[in-house]
Amino acid sequence: MINYIAVSIGDNIYAGEYVNLSKEDSEEEIHIKQSNGSNIELCIPVTGLNYIITMDGKKYEEQTKIKKVLNRLLETN
User: Fold this and answer.
1) 17-56, pLDDT tens digit by residue?
2) Which of 8, 13, 23, 35 is deepest in the core (most CB within 10 A)?
3) What distance in Å separates the CA atoms of residue 64 and residue 37, rounded to the nearest whole number?
4) Quick check: helix, strand or coil at residue 61?
5) How many CB atoms lie within 10 A of CB 5?
6) What distance, in Å, lies between the first and last C-alpha atoms of the chain?
7) In the 8-state DSSP scheme, what is residue 50?
8) Residue 50's pLDDT is what?
9) Which residues pair with 15 in a beta bridge?
10) How far apart are CA 45 and CA 58, in angstroms?
């Protein structure tokens, strides 16, 4: 199952396929492959997220909920 999400960082919003959650130098990062044909993969620190929106339209703003949702999405992938 492909999971598409939108994330907010500062004043910017990025959307794409949620690929992975990794730990880089003790900071967790999400990896999103943009779906604009460029195959660019963004690496975004989880702590920098204002919120995420999942495919079902639900918005998650609290860091603990964001991490739970990201882990759940990986399990269903």
Assistant:
1) 999 989 877 889 999 998 777 788 999 999 999 999 999 9
2) 8
3) 32
4) coil
5) 19
6) 5
7) S
8) 96
9) 6
10) 20
